Amino acid sequence: MSISKKNWKIKTEHKLRLELSTQVTEIQNKLENANVFHMYDEAKTLLDEIFYPPFLNKFFNQRGRIYFLYSDFEMGKSFLAQYAIALLENEFPEYWNNESKGFVFHPAIYLRFSRDVKGDISFLHYLANSLRIIIDPKILREWERQKIQRQKLVEKIVNWLINHKTRILIFDEIQRMSANSIIQVPEIFEAMKDLTDSVLWNKSMIKTRFVMIGTPEGIAILEASDFIQNRVSVHTINGLSKEQYIDFLEDVYYSFRLDFGLPKNWGLYREIDDEIEIVETHLQILFERSKSDLLGDRAKIGATVVLIEEAVQKALSKNRLKITENDLLKVLKTDADELVLDIHETNSKGLIKVILDLDNLTCDLCPSSSKR
Q1: What CA–CA distance (Å, rounded) separates 161 from 195?
Q2: Cα–Cα distance between 223 and 56 in angstroms, integer?
Q3: Strand partners, 270
Q4: pLDDT at res. 356
Q5: What is the rounded CA–CA span in Å between residue 306 and residue 266?
Q6: Distance from the CA of 12 to the CA of which of 82, 247, 303, 327 falls in 20 to 30 A?
Q7: What is the separation of C-alpha 14 from the centre of its chain, rounded to a whole number of angstroms?
Q8: CA torsion, points 29, 31, 34, 40, in degrees to nearest 10?
């Protein structure tokens, strides 16, 4: 090979490496800065039944109705709630970009339930602090002296929700309530009932919908408070069957191509003459590593997306645009062990004992909600 041809080849290879490196960096930046939601049938149903009704004119919240969405770990329930808020803000901007009488509207609020909450007053203080409701300590002490603290905190919170036009209030990680004693849990639900039943709602055109999100441990928490069960509409995410999983992966495949810029045949599917077929070995790895222990042969949505994102990131770190089996074999990390430890610790102190009866993890849905 002549020197000129050799130099041309070196320059060409260097240019291609630079172009690949630039493309990899762009994809990495997109992955870090974007939260893409991958739709599935159960998510559509839950959006219709739980999240959309408070934003429709024909919505009438049943007196004291609370909604509980639960599923196994890594099903994607938290991401679904956050996506629902983003979706609602996009579809109903008039509820967000507005204010009245000096109060800025907060149509949807997402909170993570605090492990520090112990009993009804503690719960109400946590909620008031989360909403940035400022109360003079002297007034709080006077309320406590008169034994009207719960009543006054409820009034403060409900008035705040009315003034700020809050249509939905979401408490995630509700299973953390299991750190409370068998006396404190009913107290918290009593306080929540006071919030939903307050006569102050009578002067409002809307009524905030309370939504709890958590793992199946939340069912045991509900069972510890008999009086609240007939006020709760229970919903669950059941995961994906093998057939549904393949359809879901097709959506993920195209999303990573269109939203993040990965090339054809980047790993999940092969594209041949405008036809696509799934890479069977990758399907088996993903499905086996994403299956739910509680639901048997059904896959977790959240775990699947995390595993694929990690595999893509691993490939990109090696300056590759295509994932391999080794990329997919990376073990997923979960906080499940941490939760189990917490439950054992609380049991040893005589607190609520969480027992999961797999035959009773689902229940009939309460009255149907308005549809979009």
Answers
A1: 10
A2: 32
A3: 277
A4: 30
A5: 17
A6: 327
A7: 44
A8: 170
pLDDT digits (tens, 9 = 90+) for 92-136: 999 998 888 889 999 999 999 999 999 999 999 999 999 999 999
Report the distance separating Cα 72 and Cα 75, nearest Å: 6
CA atoms of 292 and 272, how far apart (whole Å): 33
Structure tokens at 74: 């890594």
Q: Is 239 exposed, middle or buried (0-12, 13-18, 19+ CB in 10 A)?
A: buried
Which long-range contacts (C-beta less than 8 Å, at least 24 apart) are formed by 56-65?
56/370, 56/372, 58/370, 59/206, 59/370, 61/207, 61/208, 61/209, 62/367, 63/196, 63/197, 64/193, 64/196, 64/197, 64/231, 65/196, 65/209, 65/231, 65/232, 65/233, 65/366
Instruction: With residue 326 as reference, give the H or E element that holds it.
Output: helix 325-328
Alpha-carbon distance of 26 to 24, in angstroms, equals: 5
Measured in residues, the chain has a length of 372
Question: Which residues are CB-neighbours of 248 under 8 A, at least 6 positions away?
Answer: 38, 40, 240, 301, 304
